[in-house]
């Protein structure tokens, strides 16, 4: 390079200079490339040679300096076909996709007929932007120029259509190709997979195998494995794994990650963990996150936490997807302490500005009972995406804040974000939990009329639940008869629960019969029927149901409640005296029983489906799991700390009444999360307003 710096040195010939520029481009050596450019400018070689200008454009593009490439192009007096092609390709290569399409359009206006290489680059730009209109225009240009069946052009056009979600057009381009290589097949398989047409992706992979191109490209395996994972087809996944081994790609990191992700999504977590051990490089953030997500989806949160710890121990930094999966797991099991620790780590890694991570935090704090912190986090999100709005609407729904959920929905739509089917499930749930039937129906019918969203099973179930909770059982029955689809298990379960609350035997039996067809192993069906018969004093029917349960070996699902205290989770069952502090707990329960009676508590024995006298029923009610958990928390936790109890079943009417009184006599805030919602007990009142 010493020679190049001398102003009076003799300029190299064009071929030598072009070779040097190519060398700089391949090495990504921008400093050396600029020095050579400066020398060529001083020598006057660039101004006299479009050939050298084209090489300069290529060099700057390869060195990721697209702005300099554009300036060089702008200085060319008469750009030729190569100049235009190089510019379009360089802009696409540097992810300046809109500029690439604009350059291609300018090329056409300059009456320069594009080559297949320029057309392919422009098609890749349209694919990256998921822009079907410019993509279709490029397709028309290709047809006019006779490039539409060229392998390179057609592959990019098929990829463009698939990335725009236009699979029919992609298939048409693909089918018209006289010859197909691994790139073309990969484009189609990837398009099918990413557009949710997983079965078609697998069939396309099979056809690729028949063509004898199976070992040609590692990326095709990644696409096929992704489809297999989405189908949760473990047998197919193992077959693909064999193909990967035969093709020699098993140790490729990208393929290993795809294998692990496939096994995790298929629920085969043992195989997934084995795949990690095969890779000599050990963990990476993609493989670790896939395994964590697999554990979370399987409800194996403890193993997810262990995997996360191993990941950190090996020096792998978690990304936004890792944190989102981990926080989701904490939300599922209301693990507040672990969730709070993850929140701190999110702040340390500067991912707190990520909208997706923040949305999972909003959801986690909401599911752990801390609604005020959940709302605060939501308000701190810089750009509130649809995911964030869905999270906060769901938090309001689970905590019984119906009007707030409606206000959030109105703010969401006013900000220009369109709701989706998840939004409406949360919104309808919110209306159901507070008795806003008319408002809920308005939003239900607006789904199709205003937003073009076809209601699904879960939306119909929400309406059934809405009618049932309000005691409007005749309207619920009419609604079911007019539904275009049959209710799912949740819909019938909601109706059965409402019939139990209202003592509607006839409709309850219809709901039970339909629910048994869908979930024959659901023990709650018999328990609810027994409750309906007991409320009507039909004890012979109660006995018949219990006999049926015994004969069928159906056992009632036991109720459990758990509370976190002193860095440990304490689990209690009804009449459970296995805890080391059982004597203190029993003493506290007796004390509470006396104090709440003085405040006016009267046991609600009607809700207990047993043919016993009231005193016997009262003794049974006194030792329900949530009461034991609250009594334990009162003797174990600081007096200023809110008690948060989680329960696997619906809280009974009597316990609901008792906890209101306990919150008053103890001057203590108590939060109970049962299997459908939250109850906040404060000073003798519940956030549900006794409507649940």
From TrEMBL:
Keywords, in A-Z order: Repeat, Transit peptide
InterPro entries: DYW_dom, E2_motif, E_motif, PPR_At4g14850-like_plant, PPR_rpt, TPR-like_helical_dom_sf
Residues in PPR repeats: 80-114, 181-215, 284-318, 385-419, 456-486
Source superkingdom: Eukaryota
Pfam families, per the entry: DYW_deaminase, E_motif, Eplus_motif, PPR, PPR_1, PPR_2
Gene3D superfamilies, sorted: Tetratricopeptide repeat domain
Keyword GTP-binding: no
Domain DYW positions: 600-692
Keyword Repeat tagged: yes
Protein name: DYW domain-containing protein
Species for this entry: Urochloa decumbens
